[in-house]
Design goal:
- The structure holds two protein chains of two kinds.
- Chain A is built from no helices and eleven strands.
- Chain A is an all-beta fold.
- In chain A, a hairpin with a 2-residue loop joins strand 7 and strand 8.
- The relative contact order of chain A is 0.33.
- The radius of gyration of chain B is 13 Å and the shape is globular.
- Chain B is mainly β.
- In chain B, a hairpin with a 2-residue loop joins strand 7 and strand 8.
- Classes of the chains: A mainly beta, B mainly beta.
Amino acid sequence: GAVVSQHPSRVICKSGTSVKIECRSLDFQATTMFWYRQFPKQSLMLMATSNEGSKATYEQGVEKDKFLINHASLTLSTLTVTSAHPEDSSFYICSARGSGGGERSGYTFGSGTRLTVV
Amino acid sequence: GDSVTQMEGPVTLSEEAFLTINCTYTATGYPSLFWYVQYPGEGLQLLLKATKADDKGSNKGFEATYRKETTSFHLEKGSVQVSDSAVYFCALTGANNLFFGTGTRLTVIP
């Protein structure tokens, strides 16, 4: 079936540093990738949508200069949290969607990254 | 706009109890409906889905029926287990994305 690998699963960084999170579709080509943020005991908040080779589309209120998204290939998207601060601590989840029919055209989620900024 | 309203938790049940988690939606057009499950510290896993009215999605003993007349997609399971403890999200497809409910935390006690 469709599998999405996300790593790291956990990362702790110092305030002011940058962190990169990778999201890979392992057995299908992800034409679209989504990045979500989840606060404790809350639902998922869509941050941005990216199509391979295009600039990401950010949701209202999400700082594009702080959350850099790159989707350079059909199997890899990265989210870089720049100059991280403690308020950026959260659980980040990616989702990938392929083209064509079947399972790959649905939404497949990565296992998430727990970011803690100290 | 499209939205999902989900029963607020938390829900605590004894093992083998019957589970219902309510979900209603507002959407233009004919969305697909989903239930996702999130186990502690993990991402989301698709539990079941339904793509058109009157479809029933089922998996691992869970069921949900796409009811267009009541715009609902309630999740049910006849006999829950401790291993079902997780957060459950109802979702629907928008134009280019999924819309999620707020999630319902289920705890099953032995």
